[in-house]
């Protein structure tokens, strides 16, 4: 038995603060004055962040690697004991710090961004509910508590995508997100049940201890990992369940930053990293993850090339980056995946908040073809956006370079083809990001009548903090190549068991880095020549395009395909069941049987007056008489 | 004695109500009776003393006693009935209703009869109460129902009566098998050791009545039209309690008495139920009438419970009995909101609604919470029940679990569609005078929603209540497993 760490029980406070914030801002919705809800909600998340930091030091001081805090017994029946318990280890601490740290910044930013919205109080209530659920997700000590959070964030995502509920399209997007997530969740819950029957428990630590008793490639473990993967694919918007995420941009921009970039969508990566011991036993599943991740990374990046809505570009970029994280997982480099989760949460949150600042300044305009020249009007937004763009493109020494380079080098170790494909995706990423940057901030202002202006301080300060993190966040994990000791990866080692792999020689690594830098430089130059020197503006909607451009501008027609293959047939099936099976077959047939039976019954009673309602009353009366008779006898 | 009290309070109050003219007094008295009943039932559920029972000799020449008693399964059913009736009665408060004296008398008579079903210790008494539930409900539907009530009620009545005739035949047959001086005691029935071949056909004779009541696909065709036409209080009784009466009957009659018959037809019924889950869920998606949509949704949820019942393992049974409670609470809350929506908009047609959240935000929030309970979001009661049910199905076959689990996805599709259609979108010019919830609405909805959440967060008391029953039931099929190969499969 491990000794109880003093004060570790404070852990319950981490989810409790945002829950309290949700209850206060939710219940006192009408009574709170303007901005009060925002301040309360932000303070709650900030408090959670502080407690998380304290927990980090408590755990470090204790010298132990993990601690479980059991709150109460949730389901306790014969053979099934599921406590409501929280797990504090290096992985959950990492995620807690991201969720509460980046989350707090986004909450603060929202005070400014949502200032004029009439339902601002509801907004903050839902944001706090999201934070609570997300914290349960990353802190749960067993798969079922994780699942509570998992579905909870899905609900909040639904609510916040459809926040402006007067618009039917937004409502549709919200529902689509929830349903697609639920498809994944069905796989996930079946996986949890199979875990339960295999290990007689759903608690992480107990499962992972027993897992060593299974051979590599054991069918049951393969099935479990595939079912869990289905859940992760839905939540983290991978092929084939990714089409909800771009539509999710219907929500307010801070929502896109918090839920659909920095935190919720990375839950799938967290869950697989958490289950690393199981996935190490399932090489087949790992190969599936590689294929899914790489395909998603490249396809989403291609689509990103032709998007003209500033948030859609970022959305596809998120899908693509999540693909890279999956690639890392598939390669057994779980910690590298989590590292990319971390840096991505910095720079992608920054990109979205920057985009929000731009949209704010443009009076709600999101079409990048109508922007331009904002560099001079909004220098602060520009510089922070530039930092994030450099980071996501993988330019050293920005944070994205370290995390992406780690994944690329793992890909190289695996196979050169994998490396080339992954690098190709990275180059496309670099191109569409600089396309975005140039179209928005360079050239001349194209929207007449707009008066862009820099955002208020409450919005710019979070931008500045995030840009500092985006620039320097990579230093959390300096590889040995640069005389570092990979601190972040080492830190995670106690919670995540990455597959052992051969280290690349430093000379190979330097070669790869220099090669890719050269290519990235070319891509940036190409983008500059196209969008700045030649000031080419992407074609208007409906203008003729070459075949391939058209294909990717229409997102490979995947949405249309889903509509044709799933959505419409589902409607037809519903109509068929109702009109043909129910009303033309079952109902008449059963009616006929029923009437025949009652006719036979009445025949027996020789009461053939041909009046159905009379029969009925006769029956009722008969039963009553019968009962009275019995009672009297 | 206390069981007799529980049985008689509603009946006697009902008789008194027939003498009273003042509508408000009638409703208050009915509510008071229901609350006293709830208190008495809860005292049973949480009493540490041995099971209370009551028995007097009744029909001497047939050796039939008026014997009442209960076990964990009955207690769940009794708790559900006593819990829901105060809310069912409150659903009529502050509202104009015709002939309130008669209406509330009939409601309370139905309650008495239902309680009788759950307390009966022999098949004869069970049957009497089973039929008695139908009569007051029949009049409630016929006199207070909506459009087409005459034909629909008639169909409903014939349908269930047909099932009952089979049941009666089955009971008489079982009675004839009992040794010595014949009896209809359940305890004797379960010791009969009926030949396996007989059990195979006897199964359908007994099951059909329950299959219609629950209902199981394809015996459900009375249900959508009846639910749609029924007055709110009638549909609450039907969906909240009557469906569980079918489940209870099956648990009482099939598993202890004809286990080999159950085992023989087990997969057939599970597959029928799972077809029902998918079929009803798919149909629900395109319904334009809110009440019909919820009728099909309820059928999907009940079908999943039937599948769980026939899997008959520990987790499925725990889930089933939990879900009995959870579904009853959720569906009553749901139909309450449906009533509010109809009162405020004058319609149940989804295409004629929209934007109500802008005018009645609190109603929208409460409706959403109930919808979330209905789609089994974790930390609502629905999740605990359905998780255990799917776990139980999984133990039998992963395919059962997969198809049963589709309720999670399909439920989300049609319930969120319905919610959005009613509440969200732009304001409609023809719905501008809608007001938000009144005090009585909070009094009904807040406790129901609290229950949905509390049971989802802390389900343990319910598990403890049924643990013994579940342990007994899960072993019922074990001894007959060897008999099965000799059957003509």
Order of helices and strands of chain A: HHEEHHHHHHHHHHHHHHHHHHHHHHH
Uncertain segments of chain B are none
Q: Beta-strand level of the residues of chain B, as a percent range?
A: under 5%
Mean of pLDDT of chain B: 89
Structure description:
The complex is a heterodimer of chains A (633) and B (489). By secondary structure, chain A is mainly alpha-helical. Among the domains of chain A are: 285-445 and 512-552; 557-632, no CATH class. Chain A is built from 25 helices and two strands. Chain A has helices spanning 13-27, 36-62, 90-113, 120-139, 143-161, 168-199, 204-211, 219-235, 244-247, 253-262, 267-274, 276-280, 283-304, 310-330, 334-361, 374-377, 379-393, 399-414, 416-441, 457-472, 487-492, 506-533, 547-553, 558-604, 612-632, and strands spanning 66-77, 80-89. In chain A, strands 1-2 form a two-stranded antiparallel ribbon. In chain A, helix 5 packs antiparallel against helix 6, helix 6 packs antiparallel against helix 8 and helix 8 packs parallel to helix 13. Chain A starts with 12 loop residues before the first helix and ends with a helix. Chain B has 489 residues and is mainly α. Chain B has two domains: 1-250, no CATH class; 258-480, no CATH class. Chain B has 19 helices and two strands. Chain B has a two-stranded antiparallel sheet. In chain B, strand 1 (54-59) and strand 2 form a beta hairpin.
Core attributes:
heterodimer, A: about 625 residues, mainly alpha, globular, B: mainly alpha, 2 domains, two-stranded antiparallel ribbon, 19 helices, 2 strands
Compact overview of the structure:
The complex is a heterodimer of chains A (633) and B (489). Among the domains of chain A are: 285-445 and 512-552; 557-632, no CATH class. Chain A is built from 25 helices and 2 strands.
